[in-house]
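Tutorial handout. Part one gives the primary structure; part two gives the three-dimensional structure as tokens.
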Amino acid sequence: MVVLTDNIRIEVEALRQKINLYNHRYYGLDDASITDQAYDQLYRQLQQFEQQYPELESAESPTQRVGTAPSTHFESVDHEVAMLSLDNAFDASEMQAFEKRLSDRVITKEAPLHFTAEPKLDGLAVSLLYHNGALIRAATRGDGKTGENITANARTLKSIPLVLKGSHLPSRIEVRGEVYMDHAGFEKLNNDQRRKDGKVFANPRNAAAGSLRLLDSRITASRPLTFCSYAIGWVEDGYGLPDSQFERMQYLTTIGLPISPYIQRVMSVQGCLDYRQQILEQRDQLAFDIDGVVFKLDDITQQQQAGYVSRAPRWAIAYKFPAQEVMTRLLDVDFQVGRTGAITPVARLEPVFVGGVMVSNATLHNMGEIVRKDVRIGDVVIVRRAGDVIPEVVMPVTEQRQSELQLPEMPAHCPVCRSEVIKPEGQAAYRCTGGLVCAAQRKEGIKHFASRKALDIDGLGDKLIEKMVELEMIQSVGDLYHLKLSQLSALERMAEKSATNLLKSIEVSKLTTLPRFIYALGIREVGQATAEALALFFRDIKSLMTTDFETLQQVDDVGPVVADNIIHFFEQPNNIAVVTDLIEQGIHWPQVIAPDSVNALPLSGQTFVITGTLEGLGRDQAALMLKQRGAKVSTSVSAKTTAVIAGEKPGSKVTKADSLGVDVLSQEQFEALISSAAKYGE
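Part two.
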């Protein structure tokens, strides 16, 4: 028998109070003061205590309800059917236990069980109530039983139909879904907020929740919010719905409500695990945040047989992904010098797993952001990692700041060359004034030139570049094309085979595109989009090198600052000499065609999807080759896709192409296609 002690009672009560506080901040104030990972750990700890000591169970425990009471800013509304939360799984064994529990409870018409699977959007859950096809009420989940009336704000979302489609509609139907904000909308909103000195949001979820719960719906209307349905909560008696969760979701599309394009019907727990892996591999390429996948019994009768516990349905579960936000301690701040002289503060952290990788460094962006966020050395901080983006410090956890800590200070002199550090008027970044005297700027410029989105020189890593600059083997990007086998073979840990492969990669990089070449030059504030606009406008490098300020102003995406940067770059004799040398060494690209000639191109009207790894060719480069021949390049496969180009380890897009009857091309077939369609300028 397990003895319940006073210390355990105190610990459990403290856990409840802490979780209730975080619930209030998250659901009531839209303020996430703790990461999902840390919250899940606390919640499971409380669950374990209550399971171990049944006498501690209480209707007031946060494990017995969802979220917190709604804000008093909005009218309270009762849900027809409670909006419950979902139990979580964190590994395959917990998914297998979930399937076992279901198999023991339901009468199976067939084995194994079937599930409806979809990504778990990271947004705000809402309920939409329609009467005779017209939207009459929208509400937040609130505490699961009572939510907030946000109808006026919900009506501003274009993805929420005000009137359902079709003639045969239920007199009343309640639909549940998630309101979220995609990455592009989130970045634009925060940039707008910074310009207006308004509130900058920590993540898209907070931005969506805060925007949907504004008292002024006119402001909500200006925010980039999207709605996605995930369930039918309630429908009038007597209205026949499909007896399948998947088919019910398809029904929603017929009446005008959006659903996830990634929804699938899968078989058995193995199908669930395969789907989870498929979505996890796509996670970094998605346009929006997800924190896991959701699995629901597909058979509605089986759902009813499985039933509910007090806070969650037994027939559904959320399989969470590795956390992309975690808490750790900021140990120190270093300052790194970039290729343009910009000095960036870098956080040195207590090592922590974020998004499945160990992280010990994270960007702090600039000194202005450090001051705005009030980040101090010694703070416990929230660190975020998404995709291939360098981890960033989102915010400090000020509640855990137990003493007076110091803000980091920008050094007066460059940490590499000791040149003076200045802050140009109107700019956020501090800069080293050393120019080419600064080895860091030379190194970073060469790294940029060789990077995947620039010339994409395989095998030329950062450490090798740093070594070659230190040994004065290379002083500029042009020197890469003068390297000899004997020089590279003499380097420590560089075998002749590796040296030969690197020289081959350098040779392969000579065939590029004009936008990539412009981007690779490293002109300040000329990113990929601007490089493409410049290439399309000028169509050759010489015209760009000799242009004037007024002409540059006619180019899309080029303002006065960027125009000044371009003019200044090509006014430098050293830069002209490097560009000339690169072209003399054989760097070349297909002719850039005028926009009015697009319809005459051989691949016009065709759409391609690229998946997997192409040998000797980056996806961006392959995509540009297709675009230059008139084709469109998409990230998702549909019935309208002309063909999928599959490299090594292509993933699920090939499977989807096969199911839709879309052609799948090998790299050899792709290269043949490009060759046959290259008549216009090569």
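Part three, for discussion. Residues 595-676 form a domain with the Rossmann fold fold (CATH 3.40.50.10190). The chain has 24 helices and 22 strands.
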